[in-house]
Amino acid sequence: MANPKQKRSRSRTHMKRAKIYRPISVPMAVCPNCGQPKLPHRVCLHCGYYNGKQILEVAE
């Protein structure tokens, strides 16, 4: 069976774990209709528009 040849230091272990649990930044786009930030390729939750068409009815 394969075994590690050398001990892995605490520093290397912690650096690896820090990379796993790092928060992921979410890309944001600007809605061309209302100017609010929104997720790309999704309906704007503020105005309900996507690709120039109203998809959702938003209560004002």
From TrEMBL:
What GO molecular function terms would the record report? structural constituent of ribosome
Matching InterPro entries: Ribosomal_bL32, Ribosomal_bL32_bact, Ribosomal_zn-bd
Q: Which UniProt keywords apply?
A: Ribonucleoprotein, Ribosomal protein
One of its GO biological process terms is: translation
| GO CC annotation terms, alphabetical | large ribosomal subunit
Is Nuclease given among the entry's keywords?
no
**Which family does the record assign?**
Belongs to the bacterial ribosomal protein bL32 family.
Q: Which PANTHER family match?
A: 50S RIBOSOMAL PROTEIN L32, LARGE RIBOSOMAL SUBUNIT PROTEIN BL32
Q: What is this protein called?
A: Large ribosomal subunit protein bL32
Q: Which organism is it from?
A: Pseudothermotoga hypogea
* Gene of this entry: rpmF
